[in-house]
Amino acid sequence: MKAELANRTVAGLKEAGIDFVSYIPETRLSEILPVLEADGSFTLVPVASEAEAVGIAAGASLGGKRAAVYMEGTGLFVSTYNLLTVGERYGVPMLLLVAYVGSFEDQRNSYLFSHYGNKTKGILDTLGIQYLIIDSANQLEARIKDAVRMMHALKLPVALLFTGEFTE
Amino acid sequence: MIRYDCFEWLAAQMTDQLVVTSLSGQRVEWGHLSKRDADLNLGSMGNALAVGIGLALALPRRKVFVFESDGSVLLSLFNLPTLANLNPPNLAVFVFDNQAYSGTRISYPSATAGKTDLAAMASGAGIDYAVTVSELEDFKKEVTAALNQSGLRFVVCKIEESVGHRRIVRTNVDLLETKYRFVRYLERTEGKPIIQGRG
């Protein structure tokens, strides 16, 4: 992921009001982490499992933070139970920033990821989680704002699936 | 030590502390004994500690109590190293460990009925204050300290398996109602909007 995309992504999150990010580092979007750290306006919470990343973001959201969870696409499978039992059932807004591994546009796709990628949208559909696929920087900031507006309107988790040039 | 006795005493001590409960009989008993808007009865295993961490980080001036069970902590053991490293000073965790998966009609031993020591696991994960109590008076001392002192506390409360919660009439307050009650309370007491939405 190019530095410019990382900078624009973080600036877009900030502009959209996100101020809390729980996360497990992964490769494709990892360039956002030093930018998030350098910005200083985000509460950053490194965790050991995407399952608890969702729970922690839910608690923060209920406490008044505008919360996001940054994870690899595989993390959606790990955190399905938590997204359902806390995110969906309780109706807690949070933005899922997902590195959409194994998708058609994943520039690092391989047999390691494709089996996750071709089931990712199915998982989100089953959970009733709305999502946008971000495969280019075109209108990036506007689409982040759209997703945040939707998560507040639905009072549910909403996902951004980053692929294409974000996975280079 | 009986969990209901712990809760009966504890409910009378609580003022503006936030409480997050897990599933199991503790949710039923706490919901029966405490009717506060500051209670967030989650109704799921393996999530209370994470949600409590998030609340503690979001509201550093509020004291957050998490009531967990042995089965729930065992389901989400990754919480322990995360909690240790975040080390929120306004969070107190009480794990009511009955050494059993005690459902409506079942009772099967959990790992803590065998060799597993949750306080030792918490210590190993890096939580500085992790202790086990098995007497009501010791439980009261830990709660009193949690109410009056800063610092992360992880207290494993060894309790007898009891079925008293099965005789309590279940509430008809659902999860969404619980959430809104809790969040509107926070909005009032914190003086800020939390759930947004233009009608």
Verbal overview:
The complex is a heterodimer of chains A (168) and B (199). With 168 residues, chain A is α/β, with parallel strands linked by helices. Chain A has one domain (3-167): Thiamin diphosphate (ThDP)-binding fold, Pyr/PP domains (Rossmann fold), CATH 3.40.50. Chain A contains seven helices and six strands. In chain A, strands 2-1-3-4-6-5 form a six-stranded parallel sheet, sandwiched between helices. Chain A starts with a helix and ends in a 6-residue tail after the last strand. In chain A, 52% of the residues are buried. The mean pLDDT of chain A is 97. The model of chain B has no long low-confidence stretch (mean pLDDT 94). Chain B starts with a helix and ends in a 9-residue tail after the last helix. Chain B has a six-stranded parallel sheet, with helices on both faces. By secondary structure, chain B is of the alpha/beta class. Chain B is globular, with a radius of gyration of 16 Å. The chains are: A alpha/beta (168), B alpha/beta (199). The interface between A and B is large, with 35 and 37 residues.
Keywords:
heterodimer, A: 168 residues, alpha/beta, Rossmann fold, 6-stranded parallel beta sheet, 7 helices, 6 strands, 18% strand, B: 199 residues, two-stranded antiparallel sheet, 8 strands, 42% helix, globular
Topology (SSEs and partners):
The complex is a heterodimer of chains A (168) and B (199).
Chain A: H1 3-15, E1 20-23, H2 32-39, E2 43-46, H3 50-62, E3 67-72, H4 74-78, H5 80-90, E4 94-99, H6 114-127, E5 130-134, H7 140-154, E6 157-162
Chain B: H1 3-13, E1 18-21, H2 24-33, E2 39-41, H3 48-58, E3 64-69, H4 70-75, H5 79-86, E4 91-97, E5 100-102, E6 107-109, H6 118-125, E7 130-133, H7 136-148, E8 153-158, H8 175-190
Parallel strand pairs in B: 1-2, 1-3, 3-4, 4-8, 7-8
Antiparallel strand pairs in B: 5-6
Helix pairs in contact in B: 1-2, 1-7, 5-6
